[in-house]
Amino acid sequence: MHTSKQHERILKIVKQHYSERGTEFCFNLLADIPVSESRLRAKIRHIAADYNIHQNTWCTASAIEIIRKYYPKGGAKACMPHLPGVSANKISSRAYRLGIKTLGTRTRTLKPASQRARELRVAREPKRKGPDAFLSLPVPPSVFERRLDWNWNII
Could you state, in order of their start, the residue ranges of all structural domains in the chain? Predict the structure, then answer.
């Protein structure tokens, strides 16, 4: 059916172009091989399956341009209106593989109680662990002015 040179040529083209452009593009590059269309298409798919090359149907060159343009400003949600039918996870993973990051960082607003607890945690010096951990907590002086009885009740 195919000579070894033809097989090597098919393999080279499939490795280069199949994942981004698909079967039809590879078929058009290999149209000069004297075999039926269906056999050549089957051969392209067979080689791609053997080498675990998957056809990337959604991420074309134009989709990559959209990701490069909109992802840094607003993340996957900014890209989704321009790429219908593509999930945010797919967009994020493609951006990660392309090395594209969002600009700035997300900030979380804390509730006042959480903010106070955080300040107390940060203020603890030195950080103690184990049974002495309570010693590093701030204790108001009024605690030491009170008298306690045996059961730790205030007198």
Answer: 4-50, 58-126
